[in-house]
Amino acid sequence: MMQRDTEQFIDTLSENLQPVRGVWNPLWQTLVYFFCGLAYIGLCVGVLGLRSDIISALNTPAFVFEIGLAMLIAFTAAMASMWMALPDRGGREHVHLIPLTLLGAFCFWGLVQPLAREIGDIGTHYWADCLRDSLI
């Protein structure tokens, strides 16, 4: 009796449903973003060209930090897009905050570096003039 009532209840709930097309596989969505990213990098390299001093730049901690942070942003964004494509986001509601936080750190780094460079140059430049004038 209980089984038949349950089946009848399910039938009444699903009697007006139509077949629908399923969502993309999250891996395919991630691959689309991955190839778009590769195309963007290829476009940037094609327009701007590679650095001529790439080997010496890899010895600079700031350059390595920026390149590493950019790769980490790309990886976490790809993973977040895959999880966000799942119907319930895979139980990870705030997974998109990780690449956004890294992007914020990258933007902050991009704003602070030139300012720090200018302040450092101004201080040493004026210090050298003041020191030279005081010694003469």
Order of helices and strands: HHHHH
> How many helices in DSSP terms?
5
User: Distance N terminus to C terminus?
Assistant: 108 Å
Strand content: under 5%
How helical, in percent, are the residues? over 70%
Report the average pLDDT across residues: 76
- Which structural class matches the secondary elements? mainly alpha
Based on DSSP secondary structure assignment, what is the total number of beta strands? 0
User: What's the Cα radius of gyration?
Assistant: 27 Å
Task: Sketch the major β-sheet.
Answer: none
Global geometry? elongated
Low-confidence regions:
none
Tell me what the structure shows.
This protein has helices at residues 2-13, 26-48, 54-57, 61-84, 97-135. By secondary structure, it is mainly alpha-helical. Helix 4 packs antiparallel against helix 5. It starts with a helix and ends with a helix. 1% of the residues are buried.
What is this entry, summarized?
The protein starts with a helix and ends with a helix.
What keywords describe this structure?
about 140 residues; mainly alpha; 5 helices; about 75% helix; elongated
Helix-strand blueprint:
Layout: H1 2-13, H2 26-48, H3 54-57, H4 61-84, H5 97-135
Helix pairs in contact: 2-4, 4-5
